[in-house]
Amino acid sequence: ETGVTQTPRHLVMGMTNKKSLKCEQHLGHNAMYWYKQSAKKPLELMFVYSLEERVENNSVPSRFSPECPNSSHLFLHLHTLQPEDSALYLCASSQDEFRGEQFFGPGTRLTVL
Amino acid sequence: GEDVEQSLFLSVREGDSSVINCTYTDSSSTYLYWYKQEPGAGLQLLTYIFSNMDMKQDQRLTVLLNKKDKHLSLRIADTQTGDSAIYFCAESKGNAGNMLTFGGGTRLMVKP
Predict the structure, then answer these.
(1) H-run or E-run covering B26
(2) Count of beta carbons in the 10 Å neighbourhood of residue B74
(3) Are the beta carbons of A43 and B88 separated by less than 8 Å?
(4) What is the nearest CA distance from B102 to chain A, expressed in angstroms?
């Protein structure tokens, strides 16, 4: 257990659905991250939040919408996804955006039909 | 080309040493990391090295850094079947704080 939990662990959705991924960290960290891990590409950083403010948006399509209501919770809202968006979505947290090792959750395996 | 590169696959026998290699391109990297990912799990930080160090040892793990060649390696002594996993090298860029760039991962298979 790394102190970072993600739900759901598996999600299957159609292209017209709207769903949300949830991440929660119990480490008292101030920075949280969303990564995408697909079969054919290295791990890609999507978003970074520090103290609930977005500090990085790595050219991610608008069909992915992050939300950070407080420093312990991070959401990724999904709508009108494409089959190529199928991947493992990993959440991580660190002490802050400038330092500290990143602790990863177990990921949500997303399949878009 | 990729910022961080790793070979895709490594197979060793139980009890042997494993050496996983990584090359990176950004000379301003401040920290370099090794993460381990077991099936169905997220990434677990194994160890890291600051860019002004040449070597770091932590129990069975030895990290070697050749900054001139931008080459990083992870040596696992007395490799066990439980070490079978994907190992990711990552760098944090000097001017971007804690933003990590990951390699594609090396799948280590340990045979009994």
Answers:
(1) none
(2) 23
(3) yes
(4) 6
